């Protein structure tokens, strides 16, 4: 009956995959209890180490579960021959005890490699003994398990260790084959009446173990890839954006203005550069403290982001200096409308504690290639226009060649 139910389960691949997925999640949750905790003298395990600890713990738990079910059903319920029962029971209990010990050893720091090697070696040793007491390499139903140690070694450790276990497995099997050809009589401890059901059970366990290993390893590598990509994206974002305002930083702004000019040359279009300097920021920073100044800068940054288009680039290039690169459809009328909205939005008051603080902005505008022929001269032209607006107490100023340059001297 058990064999029939097993075959029905195998014939239902969707249900089987869901069951295996749930089983993997269960093993992961239990395996998390055996991940070593961080200590002052040891850094916490990284995400890759955590997944590998889970894989080792899950493999140990799966093996212990199989041994427990095997011992209960085939030895305690279905009586083996007396010598075979004693040998098999001793083998199962000994291996289970050893694996339980390794499972708790896994919680210690820097024992992952040792535990993985011991677990693989114990599975290989148990399989070797199992083949010996169940008919030898040609008659044993456990011979297929010789392929597991090297596969587990490859998934849990590295290629070099996996090749060592593969070579050892090959040597053991060759020794058994030679003994078989020399007509050595291997003991047979499995009664004939339960051999078929045992063979079905062991094959189910074997295929399930392979599926669990492959699915777990695939899930681990997939999640590691996503995690590393997320970390890479975070690092890339941190390298190109200002920590306080989340706008592009000075370096990213320099890269973007060069790229914008390059695209404008290819498409015969224009690029507008808006430089913004806040008026009245220093007195607020001195009177209310740096926290108030930071809150005000964040408020102004939000107003700038709310004003610019999605294709434009907004950056913080200095303490209270900002820049906007306007690309694509650069029309003077549209630029003037943006400047009006930008000036109004920047002057909106910011609520800080129980106070309302606000600043205004002086904006300088320069357009490529109308006012400059490269990124440096465009920045210089916008800078001159911005200082002209500040000096004349205007909200913004377009660049023209007669702009006074005394502030640069």
From TrEMBL:
Keywords: Membrane, Transmembrane, Transmembrane helix. Signal peptide: none annotated. The chain crosses the membrane at residues 55-77, 83-103, 115-133, 163-182, 202-220. Its cofactor is Mg(2+). GO terms for molecular function: catalytic activity. Residues 269-401 form the GGDEF domain. The keyword Transcription regulation does not apply. Gene3D superfamilies: 3.30.70.270. It comes from the Bacteria. The keyword Hydrolase does not apply. This is Putative signaling protein. The lineage of its organism: Bacteria, Pseudomonadati, Pseudomonadota, Gammaproteobacteria, Cellvibrionales.
């Amino acid at each position: 009956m058990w064999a029939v139910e097993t075959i029905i389960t195998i014939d239902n691949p969707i249900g089987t995959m869901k069951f295996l997925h749930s089983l993997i999640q269960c093993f992961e949750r239990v395996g998390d209890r055996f991940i070593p905790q961080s200590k002052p003298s040891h850094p916490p395990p990284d995400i890759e180490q955590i997944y590998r600890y889970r894989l080792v713990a899950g493999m140990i738990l799966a093996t212990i579960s199989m041994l427990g079910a095997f011992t209960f059903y085939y030895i305690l319920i279905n009586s083996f021959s007396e010598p075979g029962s004693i040998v098999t029971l001793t083998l199962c209990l000994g291996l289970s005890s050893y694996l339980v010990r390794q499972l708790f050893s896994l919680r210690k720091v820097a024992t992952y490699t040792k535990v993985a090697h011991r677990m693989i070696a114990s599975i290989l040793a148990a399989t070797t003994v199992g083949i010996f007491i169940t008919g030898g390499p040609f008659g044993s139903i456990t011979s297929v398990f010789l392929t597991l140690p090297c596969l587990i070694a490859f998934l849990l450790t590295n290629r070099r260790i996996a090749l060592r276990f593969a070579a050892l497995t090959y040597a053991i099997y060759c020794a058994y084959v030679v003994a078989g050809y020399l007509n050595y009589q291997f003991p047979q401890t499995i009664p004939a009446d339960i051999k078929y059901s045992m063979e079905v059970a062991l094959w189910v366990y074997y295929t399930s173990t392979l599926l669990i290993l492959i699915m777990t390893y695939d899930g681990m590598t997939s999640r590691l890839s996503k995690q590393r990509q997320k970390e890479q994206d975070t690092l890339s974002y941190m390298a190109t954006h200002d920590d306080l305002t989340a706008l592009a930083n000075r370096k990213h702004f320099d890269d973007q203005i060069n790229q914008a000019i390059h695209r404008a040359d290819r498409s015969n279009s224009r690029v507008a550069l808006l430089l913004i300097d806040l008026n009245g920021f220093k007195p607020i920073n001195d009177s209310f403290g740096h926290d108030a100044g930071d809150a005000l800068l964040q408020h102004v940054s939000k107003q700038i982001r709310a004003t610019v288009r999605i294709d434009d680039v907004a950056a913080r290039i200095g303490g209270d200096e900002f820049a906007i690169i306007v690309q694509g459809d650069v029309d003077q009328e549209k630029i003037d409308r943006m400047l009006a909205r930008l000036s109004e939005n920047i002057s909106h008051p910011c609520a800080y504690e129980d106070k309302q603080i606000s600043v205004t902005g002086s904006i300088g505008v320069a357009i490529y290639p109308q006012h400059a022929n490269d990124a440096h001269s465009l920045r210089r032209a916008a800078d001159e226009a911005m200082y002209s607006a500040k000096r004349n107490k205007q909200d913004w100023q377009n660049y023209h060649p007669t702009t006074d340059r005394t502030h640069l001297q």
